[in-house]
Write a structure and sequence with these properties.
Radius of gyration: 28 Å
Helix content: 25-40%
CATH class of the largest domain: Alpha Beta
Order of helices and strands: EEEHEHEHHHHHEEHEEEHEEEEEEEH
CATH superfamily of the largest domain: DD-peptidase/beta-lactamase superfamily
Shape: elongated
Structural class: alpha+beta
Number of helices: 10
Strand content: 25-35%
Number of domains: 3
């Protein structure tokens, strides 16, 4: 389908200075990493972010996400309880909540054990409460991954224990972390809990950045021999939230240092910049067969992006409209979309709408416009011919 384009350049005043221009893989010793801004999902830095790697206990973010969706759908509630099975109790490898077989535990308590203590036993118990078995729950995990467009993820278990064919990418983990934060803020609050006690055993949250950085409020650690030390973190400073993911570092300290470097890089170099507000007139267009000329076009949403001081002066908006667009049109109708660009890179796409209705002209007016267009084209062509002829003479 043919499109026509209109480019609108944006002039901005900025009030900050940027610091380190880049963050290279040599600065962060990891198999893969990524840093995104949570609202726009803009990638601020990345390295091998789509590579499929063993995610260890970061898997439990998807375990939790499916439980949250089940609660939202009314399948179960936080106050519901479930009887702990032999299969859940048998999860003695790796981190545990230390739940006892045959005991009744609420969904809320199991979520504490999953999120704060990273309990493999809690993960299996939750899976059984939702789907009847771990394998049935794993199918729900893969369905949820597909719905989130996590194309570089596949799950074989609910715990993240090493298994062939079980993998995630750093980029997909960031997508999942964002989904939890945005879709389930009432559950996300649990990720900043520093400890949880169950069965007389108090366990600290393994995300030590919760203790050292007050702006950090989640999310999850992971470790297996195959995966290395992994960490996904979210932090909010002022009005901007960043999500970092680091996979495959060599130690607990290394994953913390890598996360700190990425967060400091992002918050030091980027600020949220409002380019347009929803319903703000960005440009005007003429509509085929429309009575009105110069119809105001606006974004349906606020256009807010994280940018560096240098980038803020280089952003432009490009309106992409269907060339077959014609009257009549209703006010508020979507007529295309704006591409918010930095050079050739599309940073954000937002729907574009007209702010007023456009009535259709009658047949006589159409004929008159057509005739005027033909006459205009004739004289333009004639003028070009005359100029070329005169130029040839001299």
């Amino acid at each position: 389908m043919m499109k026509y384009l209109l480019v609108i350049y944006v002039a901005l005043l900025t009030g900050w200075q940027s610091y380190a221009a880049t963050l290279s893989s040599s600065d962060i010793q990891a198999k893969a990493y990524i840093l995104i801004e949570a609202d726009s999902e803009r990638v601020l830095t990345q390295y091998r972010a789509t590579e499929r790697l063993s995610p260890a206990s970061i898997t439990k973010l998807m375990t939790a996400y499916v439980v949250y969706k089940s609660i939202a759908s009314g399948l179960l509630s936080l106050d519901d309880s479930t009887v702990i099975s032999a299969e859940a109790r048998a999860m003695t490898e790796g981190s545990r909540m230390f739940i006892e077989q045959g005991s009744r535990v609420t969904i809320a308590e199991l979520l504490h054990g999953l999120v704060v203590q990273s309990g493999n036993d809690a993960a299996v118990a939750l899976a059984e409460a939702v789907a009847g078995s771990e394998q049935a729950f794993v199918e729900l995990m893969n369905q949820a991954a597909a719905a989130l467009a996590m194309t570089d993820s596949h799950f074989k278990n609910v715990t993240g224990l090493t298994q062939e064919g079980h993998y995630m990418s750093a980029h997909n983990i960031a997508i999942l972390a964002r989904a939890i934060i945005k879709q389930f803020p009432e559950h996300y609050r649990l990720y900043k809990e520093k400890s949880f006690t169950w069965n007389g055993i108090k366990q600290a949250n393994r995300n030590t950045l919760l203790k050292t950085d007050p702006t950090v409020d989640g999310l999850k650690t992971g470790y297996t021999e195959a995966a290395g030390y992994c960490l996904t973190v979210s932090a909010k400073r002022h009005d901007m939230r960043l999500i970092s993911v680091v996979l495959g570092t060599k130690s607990k300290a290394a994953r913390v240092r890598a996360s700190e470097k990425m967060l400091d890089y992002g918050f030091s170099n980027y600020r949220l910049q409002t380019f347009y507000r929803a319903d703000q007139v960005i440009t005007r267009i003429n509509v085929k067969n429309g009575k009105q000329d110069n119809i105001a076009v606006a974004s349906t949403d606020d256009v807010i992006l994280p940018v560096t001081a240098q980038e803020a002066t280089q952003i432009n908006a490009r309106l992409v409209v269907d060339a077959s667009l014609a009257a009549p049109l209703a006010g508020g109708q979507q007529v295309g979309h704006f591409e918010i660009r930095l050079a050739d890179q599309v940073l954000l796409t937002v729907p574009a709408k007209i702010l007023s209705s456009v009535e259709e002209i009658g047949l006589l007016q159409r004929f008159w416009r057509y005739l005027m267009a033909v006459i205009s084209d004739f004289f333009v062509t004639l003028w070009q011919f005359i100029k070329q002829t005169v130029s040839a003479w001299f």
